[in-house]
């Protein structure tokens, strides 16, 4: 590690290193590098203090040691995180000596108060507990994802380096870019600063490739989709598959649209243009990282997820315009042959059902919401396997070590969790099926418009479905 050449006023030097720099194949190399780093820092501090005395300047000399990805250096492995995740295998004697040398150096800094050691990691659970005790890394700072004001500032910072449509047409370029930054920030909750930088960079690259002299608002919004969803790709689906995808996505959109805004976020668009791994998608505004989600919001998400499959039932399996479609394309009265005229349900809902099962399981296992009375006030608790007292139990979610051998609860409770999760999903199917049958005409009108335009934004959806309920 080398100190930075540029030192700020006040005689401060910075030494930076990466945790993996201390991991060596040969025995003793890791602990030697730790000693060398701290010895360099101590020598540099003495030089700075001597320079300060000779120049008779005020202030305090200090040295900062920054170690990025410190979990590569400070993890002994073999443990289990607070959420049940496995933290890796055993530890070698070389890694053990390296960690012990780090602990020894940190303890030896008590006589060198002007040396500050800062570590950074995105896996704090993996750190050895001895590193985190008082007197070592005792001050912990969590850097959360940026909120709307922070994202606005970040977007504004990166937009300064590109020529935008608004800046070209307005003399007050800074203010117009600030407005554009606010618009983009509202569309990107839950994103990191690196993703925000990539969005502006992708838009600038697209502008250059298409021979545009400035970055347009449309390019920036398309760049948001490129980063958050995936790049556009050629649509290789057949006409039949596209029509099925359209009714599927319209089912998601319609249920989300007619759900209260308190429980479901705004629908931004529905599209048949393939992006990433998706052949079509319904895009809703993501929630902020700090937002708390209610039980009703989780249940409404279940309803939205299963609505794609129900829309396919209505379009391809319905036998009547007044009664709900069968839950399975092959359901036929006893003694009759299988209805082979029905096109049936596709496998397109596979990912939706996986997500719904995961959310329902989390509601029961982790969030203490297994009581159906929270969602369905008239539910009969006597008919359920989980009683009232079980409703507030909470267990850590599964980590890397899957399998029943790693479950933190009994086999009996595991069966109850499966039954209760199925009950939640079944109730979501009932609720969503009732809504989609009531709005059947709107569902097909929305599908026809989507097939015509290939992509519908919020305004186009509102023209068909009307304003959203409060």
Automatic annotation (TrEMBL):
Its cofactor is Zn(2+). Pfam families: AAA, Peptidase_M41. Residues 12-143 form the ATPase AAA-type core domain. Residues 165-193 are annotated as: Disordered. GO terms for biological process: mitochondrial protein processing. The keyword Zinc applies. GO terms for molecular function: ATP binding; ATP hydrolysis activity; ATP-dependent peptidase activity; metal ion binding; metalloendopeptidase activity. The keyword Protease applies. GO terms for cellular component: m-AAA complex. Residues 31-58 form a coiled coil. The lineage of its organism: Eukaryota, Amoebozoa, Discosea, Flabellinia, Dactylopodida. It comes from Paramoeba aestuarina. Signal peptide: none annotated. Belongs to the AAA ATPase family. Keywords: ATP-binding, Coiled coil, Hydrolase, Metal-binding, Metalloprotease, Nucleotide-binding, Protease, Zinc. This is Vesicle-fusing ATPase. Residues 175-186 have a biased composition (Basic and acidic residues). PANTHER family: AFG3 LIKE MATRIX AAA PEPTIDASE SUBUNIT 2, ISOFORM A, ATP-DEPENDENT PROTEASE. Residues 237-317, 344-464 form the Peptidase M41 domain. It comes from the Eukaryota. Gene3D superfamilies: 1.10.8.60, P-loop containing nucleotide triphosphate hydrolases, Peptidase M41.
